[in-house]
């Protein structure tokens, strides 16, 4: 699976740890920054990753200290369904029921091995469709109403 990944300054090492886990499993990680711990604003990273996710039709992973700011930001972009997950169950469910296309992680919340397991669960779970499709369609409709 190809995944676009980015973080603010709080998540640089954490992002490398997550990428290492994903690459070991054969996933392709495209690192869109940031690359050092100089202060960076998470909405800028969220926008960059979200646009790549939509342009390339692939999954994204966004990381900030808590995962909160970057998930809120990513969800402002129409077509993005970003799920902030703290465990594998939520990550799987966000794919099965919500067809999430972006996973948000908190670098100051999770340890690296749990984060890797969450990312694998996210990338390796399929959307169930069926009754969940109409609900996802309603999310898309909300995006239009909210403009
Ligand atoms: C940066 O200090 C921090 O506010 C940011 O990484 C994130 O946690 C915001 O939601």
In N-to-C order, the SSE pattern is EHEHEHEHEHH
Number of helical elements: 6
Q: What Rg, in angstroms, do the CA atoms define? A: 14 Å
Report strand %. Answer: 15-25%
Bound molecules: D-ribose
User: Describe the biggest sheet?
Assistant: 5 strands, parallel
Question: How many beta strands in the DSSP annotation?
Answer: 5
Strand order of the largest sheet: 2-1-3-5-4
Describe the 3D structure.
With 147 residues, the chain is α/β, with parallel strands linked by helices. 48% of the residues lie in helices and 16% in strands. It has helices at residues 12-24, 42-56, 68-74, 88-96, 112-123, 131-145, and strands at 2-7, 28-31, 59-64, 82-84, 102-106. The chain has a five-stranded parallel beta sheet with strand order 2-1-3-5-4, sandwiched between helices. The model has no long low-confidence stretch (mean pLDDT 98).
Salient structural properties:
147 residues, binds D-ribose, single chain, 48% helix
């Amino acid at each position: 699976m190809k995944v676009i990944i980015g973080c603010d300054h709080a998540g640089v090492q954490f992002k490398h740890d997550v990428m290492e886990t994903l690459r070991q499993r054969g996933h392709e990680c495209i690192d869109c920054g940031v690359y050092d711990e100089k202060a960076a604003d998470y909405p800028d990273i969220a926008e960059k990753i979200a646009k790549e996710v939509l342009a390339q039709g692939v999954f994204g992973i966004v990381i900030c200290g808590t995962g909160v700011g970057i998930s809120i930001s990513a969800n402002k972009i129409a077509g993005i369904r970003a799920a902030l997950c703290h465990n594998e169950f939520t990550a799987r469910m966000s794919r099965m029921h919500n067809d999430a296309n972006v996973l948000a992680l908190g670098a100051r919340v999770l340890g690296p091995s749990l984060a890797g397991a969450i990312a694998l669960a996210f990338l390796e779970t399929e959307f169930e469709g069926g009754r969940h499709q109409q609900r996802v369609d309603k999310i898309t409709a909300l995006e239009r109403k909210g403009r």
